Structure formats: C-alpha cells, structure tokens
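queue> holo job accepted (calcium ion)
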Amino acid sequence: MAFMSEFFAIVVAVLSMRALSESDFCPSRSPVKSSCPPEWQLWGSACYRLTSSKYNWEDAKTACHDVGGKMAAPRSPEELNFMVDLARKDDSQYRVWIACNDRDVEGAWECDGQEGVEPFLEWADEQPDNWEGNQDCVAIAAWHNHRMDDGHCDGSNRAFCVRHAACAHLSTQPRQYCVSTDTHGRILNSTCLLDHSIREFITKGVVACGSACAQEPRCRSFNIKKTEDGKRICQLNNSTSSEDKEKFQKTDYFCTMYSEEMCSD
Ligand SMILES: [Ca+2]
Ligand SMILES: [Ca+2]
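queue> job finished
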C-alpha cells in the first residue's frame, strides 16, 4: 500500500500520469517537440536521412547503424512521398535502397519494421521483375517514377536511414513519465525495460527515483525494482519501451517501469 500511495502522490505532485493500455505512448497536452540530430530530417515522430556514400544493400544496413539508425522502409503513401522528396532534393536521378527484400523466399517480400503485417510496397510498372533471376533487394528510384524496383543486392546505392526523434520538453515544463497498464488499467507489475540502465541506486520510492531521472539528461525511463530484503532499487534507463520493445520484459522479481512520454507528433 505504501507503494500505491506514492503512485498517487506522484500523479498530483510531480508527474501528470495517465493510465495507458499496454503501451507507454502517453498523449499529453504539455508542450513537447520532436527534434532530430543535424543532417536528419523530421517526419512524424522519426528522423530520416540518406547515407552519405553508396553501398551494397547489406553494407547499407550497417552504414545506417553506424550513424545511429536503421535502414528505413516506408509504411504509407505519405511516408513514401516524404522519402522521395528527401532523395530528390539531394539528387534528381536518385536510386536509394529501402529495407525490403525477398532473399529468403523468392517473391515473399519482407520489410524491416513491418513484421506481422502485409508489407507496404508500391512497385513501379513491370516491377518486381527479378531480372536475371537475381533481384532481391528493393530501391526507390527517380527513373522508376519514384516507385519501387527490385535490384541486385550487390548493386551500389545510397540508402534511407531512420531513427526515433528525441522528445524535447520545453524547459519550463516538468518532465512527464507514464506507467504502463493492462487493458483494465492495472499497473503492469514485474514488467521492466532491461539492459538500458545508466546507473542504479537504492531509492525511497517513485518520487525520488522520478526526480533523479528528471535531473539526468540521458534518462528516458526508470525502473523501480524491489529486492528480497524489501529495498527498492531505482534504475535510470537511457531508452523507452517503444524504442526497444524486445527489452521490455516480464521479470521474476517485483519491478515497474515509468517511461518518458513519446512525442505524439
Ligand atoms: Ca527476387
Ligand atoms: Ca527489377
């Protein structure tokens, strides 16, 4: 019960929290703006850029990782149009890799980030043609009317990279944290973001841990872990559960995560 009363205290005093449904997406009217590092362009809640050099498809994936992102695949006509404009500004005759391929099974297209759904594919006329029986990697090209073409994976092109935008909170506003709940609004106990700790220490509770996170510029979320002897460990994380879904896991000890809201726009 002590834990619960702290939770309610935090709602009133420090952090305007909202119950969320199996997500740490926290819509809020507080002023938040998305921002991108230099050389990246903001669209929605993500940042996009082209690699500065040309690579084969596999190396292009690495090049995107090296600049802090991953190779991008558009998920909607609007996103495709944004990416086309980005490439066009740079080179009117562009041909740029996206993160789609049919290397495993010919004709079965997979796009990174679109698992479990039908991939978004806008093929150019007469594409995909698997030319010479060996075209398994997808590019968008000016020459193909700004639509998709399957190409030889060892061909050399620039690539689209994408990364999350940072949420920049206006300085007068307190930083906000959301707690994930199940569909009934119950707090998801024993679910935490693992392997992202910047530092950890024994804490009095949620308010103290939340304040420590608010004062640490790299902190994006925090875990409260209860040890067997009843101590509470505050763990400051440099990521959120939406940025690393795989590491947002059930634990076999008492653990709750509070996450900085994601930018809604
Ligand atoms: Ca193919
Ligand atoms: Ca082709």
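queue> The CA atoms of residues 223 and 257 lie 4 Å apart.
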